[in-house]
Amino acid sequence: QKPIQDFQAYRDRLEATQGATRSFIRNVIHRIKSQAKTRGKDVPLVVIPEAHNPAVLKALQVVMEEGILRPILLGRPEEVLPLIHEMDSDLLKDLPVHRKAPAGPGEYRD
Asked: What is the pTM of this model?
């Protein structure tokens, strides 16, 4: 048995065996990362509504592990922050929680 040289390629091959849906998701993730790298920019900044929903936070944690977006959480901090604390997520703990949506397309731009 040969040692694994490229873990990302190995992971992609394994996920491809899990069906078309997983393969599609992996393809989208690679495309987002590739476009960000090609343009010399960060991954997209995305506003996440309903941050008070634990399922949304769990999904967000998975997406952040993939490194395909920079989130802005919308919700009541007094509701959202305890949920993040319960999850004990290093990825989510430092994210700011905003009470309102952006006023316009440029409000949250870097």
From this structure: 0.62
pLDDT at 107: 60
Q: CB under 8 Å, gap of 24 or more: what pairs does 47-52 form?
A: 47/71, 47/72, 47/74, 47/101, 47/102, 47/108, 48/72, 48/73, 48/74, 49/74, 49/75, 49/101, 50/74, 50/75, 51/75, 51/80, 51/97, 52/76, 52/79, 52/80, 52/83
Q: What does residue 103 show for φ and ψ, rounded to 5 degrees?
A: -70, -30
What are the CA-CA distances from residue 2 to residues 5, 6 (Å)? 9, 12
User: What span, in angstroms and rounded, lies between the C-alpha atoms of 11 and 16?
Assistant: 9
When pLDDT is cut at 50, 70 and 90, the band that residue 109 belongs to is low
Say if residues 75 and 97 touch (Cβ distance below 8 Å): yes
